[in-house]
């Protein structure tokens, strides 16, 4: 029993090539897919048709491996993971975790490396997909990772088809009229795919160990959703720190307004979803629900304080206080294992540190500096302390995702200490923080290069450049001296203008016009 591919070439007019995928009738869910490619078809349609055949063939694959070796009541078999499965993990991690985000950045800056990077990532993703269904060793039952893989590949196929059409520049007729919608759809999918890939990688890690089954599903979802939210918040703070000040200036809002808005919305969700209404209250239900209440209450206050009485954007400390209180509440959760108690404590302290450093950043480093009203007022110097709050959110997210009941039990049985485990999680946070900073640096490099040669900006780059090609940021003492000179000159000019203005606008009767 195997998958059969039949290629038929018809020489009689009209000549055509017919591809047929079929599955033996002895296997369940048999299906036959057929595609005909005629020579009259445009050349670009052939790879698209091939991708459509590939997409239809996704339904031929089911969950990973044979289910007959899985014990009753278990999600995985007792065998260790084989070499093929490890290759599948490495290839998919490279494709979805590194190459696709890199290709997304290349696409944003319209680099010539965008298409080659996406082609390589797509090829690896397709190979890794089929390796995931052809491995030996450990076998897996029906799981979300295997089901979501088909949807992820479908997203990829749609993205590739849109990309091919956009590269053809078909601007006549119906395709020309909908081109702007194709561009928007391609951009939206480009941002959705990395998020979907993150979800799929988490589901893969869960499926590899058979976690999050039966009664463990609820707390498992809470840990992975909240942990991912902390990491996403850290990534957003990193983007706003390095590349988002111009966007903030255009919105006319302070950063705390958007932080408070998300906190309030998330608090509303937690308030009504953490307890199954009609059932008895448990201590965890009370803690999670009360945490949701303080989030939406504090979020509303933060939104109100994000503007002064004149309507100008203003900084406030409410989001930082919410993070600090959340860390304290999380660290106080009662645990059954000593290892889990230590991990949750360090997670709480890390999250409290994120809130505290954010508070210090706003109050003492930035001194409540209001978000600039236009991009020209943005200070490009970033204090080194400002990198600390985002990183601590990365670390908090990984610590919380790595503290589920089943993970703690597995590590406790293996004799792993909390010190080594926490250091490993911090190492992963450092690597992700590095990768995000590298992508943002790449984006800044390309956007800065594309803006050169435009009148005064080019002269500014030449004046503030160094022999190694890097832009020179004026030192703080130089900028203070320059500000002082401008202040003195402004005062002299103002006095002269006042004297001249008085002479010009004076009349014989002593009254100015």
Automatic annotation (TrEMBL):
Residues 453-513 are annotated as: Disordered. Residues 197-443 form the Protein YTP1-like C-terminal domain. It holds the Pfam family DUF2427. Keywords: Membrane, Transmembrane, Transmembrane helix. Residues 485-500 have a biased composition (Acidic residues). Residues 69-169 form the DUF2427 domain. CDD domains: Cyt_b561_FRRS1_like. The chain crosses the membrane at residues 85-107, 119-136, 148-166, 187-209, 221-244, 285-305, 317-334, 346-366, 387-403, 423-446. InterPro entries: DUF2427 (IPR018825), YTP1_C (IPR018827). It comes from the Eukaryota. This is Cytochrome b561 domain-containing protein. The lineage of its organism: Eukaryota, Fungi, Dikarya, Ascomycota, Pezizomycotina.
